[in-house]
Amino acid sequence: MNKLTYLKPGDLIQIVAPAKAIEESHVVYARNFFEQQGYKVVLGAHCTGQHNYFSGTDEQRTEDFQKAIDNPEVKAIICARGGYGVVRIVDRIQWANQLRNPKWIVGFSDITVFHQQLQKFEQKSIHATMPLNYRENSPESLATLLQALEGKLSGIEIPGNSLNKKGTTEGELIGGNLSIVYSLLGTDIQPDYKGKVLFLEDVGEQLYAIDRMFFSLKKAGVLDAISGLIIGGMTDLKDTTATTIGMTLEEIVLQHFQYRNIPICFDFPAGHVNDNRALILGEMVQFEVNSSVKLTFCGEVNE
Fold first, then answer.
1. Confidence of residue 257 (pLDDT cuts 50, 70, 90)
2. 12-137 has which fold?
3. Is the pTM here over 0.70, yes or no?
4. Confidence band (pLDDT; 50, 70, 90) for 1?
5. Average model confidence (pLDDT) for the chain?
6. CA separation for the pair 123, 118 (Å, rounded)
């Protein structure tokens, strides 16, 4: 099995839509963005199509993704958006060429299904913004995306939060969207969480649903196995209207760590937020939570 290689101008990028349908203008904007950086870009045949909720039928979305994997010229696969649909096609994909000649797979939200599949293969992938969001993203979002693809992302540092749990640890960074991670517990693509630094984000969930998912993570042994926890964007969370659950997001999370002393941070800039910075999943990281939060990627960095 060959190693992933970092991108350089002139390399070929393919944009595919493996889940929900996306308006063509977002894809055109993304293609122009990468071409302005000196990359060649090709679109999946059904990238801007629509079949009910999805960009194409399961067969069409699988075909687009398969062709991107099988094309030796493609160095990175950019997923156009999330929504729902990746779990419908992940087992249809023939992964042999990805194992032989791996390429970067990039996205977040529903793309967490692919990230977890790649974690089972012990391959790295990039949790980062997608074409649906490029026009609204912060400069840091797009800059870190390019840095991750080009092997220039050394780390991210942000101010601390008073509710963080201080500490320092090292481990492999894994995770993604909380709802997807939760939905894959006990499946054949649940990764090994022992000693890992777990990143989680989500959008539009009820606080009681967050509470339920964290109890499931606890009962599945995940929270006892990890060495650190990074809570990213938890955007547009809701509470029940008749009677409140009576806990904040931070209280929901921290109740499970009264007797475990691992570093935990909140408000990390990644997820369903405009400042959605790239993370290299599967990479060894150093995670430091003090007055500031430092996430350092321990792999080689291209000069």
1. very high
2. Rossmann fold (3.40.50)
3. yes
4. very low
5. 96
6. 5
Residue 38 has pLDDT above 90, yes or no: yes
* HSE (side-chain half, CA atoms, 13 Å) at 207: 15
Q: What is the largest CA-CA distance in the chain?
A: 57
Q: What is the 3-state secondary structure (H, E, C) of 154-202?
A: CEEEEECCCCCECEEEEEEEEEEEHHHHHHCCCCCCCCCCCCCEEEEEE
Asked if residues 102 and 123 have their Cβ atoms less than 8 Å apart, the reply is: yes
Q: Where are the alpha helices (DSSP H) in 195-248?
A: 207-219, 222-225
Q: State which amino acid sits at residue 101.
A: N
Q: What is the mean pLDDT of residues 22-40?
A: 98
Task: Name residue 167's beta-bridge partners.
Answer: 289
Q: Which residues share a beta bridge with 210? A: none
Backbone angles phi, psi at 152, to 5 degrees: -120, 10
Q: Do the Cβ atoms of 291 and 265 come closer than 8 Å? A: no
Among residues 179, 147, 175, 115, which one has the least CA distance to residue 277? 147
The amino acid occupying position 266 is: F
Domain ranges of the chain: 12-137, 155-297
> What spatial distance separates the first Cα and last Cα of the chain, rounded to whole Å?
25
For 55-65, what is each residue's pLDDT tens digit?
999 999 999 99
Classify 155-297 by CATH class. alpha beta
Three-state secondary-structure class, residue 86: helix
Count the Cβ atoms, other than its own, within 10 Å of residue 233. 20
% of the chain surpassing 70 pLDDT: 98
